[in-house]
Amino acid sequence: MSAPFEERSGVVPCETPWGRWYQTLEEVFIEVRVPPGTRAKDVSCSLQSRHIALSVRGQEVLQGKLFDSTVTDEGTWTLEDRKLIRVVLMKTNRDAGNCWTSLLENEYAADPWVQDQMQRKLTLERFQRENPGFDFSGAEISGNYSKGGPDFSSLEK
């Protein structure tokens, strides 16, 4: 079995003061650096459809309204190696045109170049799903790919 598209093609991260976030067609990943030795009991994380609140040892790290809605009961967080918190949110809208421009409604926006690269990656991921026999992980895309790129679904195979 081959690796998922995002593992083969890499990620396009948006760096933040506390770590980074990135996305695929289906998910948003948040990676938060925490002091080495942090334990799960030091972490408080609330995940709701349009809201996130994360604090470590009583200090707020991330809090606010998410850019778009997520599936509440499919969001998870893990503490890895006692120095990184990884939050995984499942997008409600999972098409290539739904490229989040920021993590929160008014914070942690991707700069224009990163946003462009994120949209390219989601468009290639969409092409991969529509054409499972081909490998788009190393492909380059140009032209009009905003809003998920052209729709080829009506073409005959």
TrEMBL record:
What's the domain of life for this entry? Answer: Eukaryota
Q: Which GO terms describe its molecular function?
A: unfolded protein binding
Q: Which GO CC annotations does the UniProt entry carry?
A: centrosome; cytoplasm; kinetochore; spindle pole
Look up the coiled coil feature and give its residue ranges. none
Q: Which GO terms describe its biological process?
A: protein folding
Q: Which stretches make up the CS domain? A: 14-104
Subcellular location(s) per record = Chromosome, Centromere, Kinetochore; Cytoplasm, Cytoskeleton, Microtubule organizing center, Centrosome; Cytoplasm, Cytoskeleton, Spindle pole
Pfam name, any one:
CS
Q: What keywords sit in the KW lines?
A: Acetylation, Centromere, Chromosome, Cytoplasm, Cytoskeleton, Kinetochore, Phosphoprotein
Annotated stretches, region: Disordered: 138-157
How does this protein assemble? Interacts with LIS1.
What function does the entry list?
Answer: May regulate the LIS1/dynein pathway by stabilizing LIS1 with Hsp90 chaperone.
Kindly provide the name given to this protein in its UniProt entry: NudC domain-containing protein 2
Phylogenetic lineage? Eukaryota, Metazoa, Chordata, Craniata, Vertebrata
What gene name is given for the protein in this entry?
Nudcd2
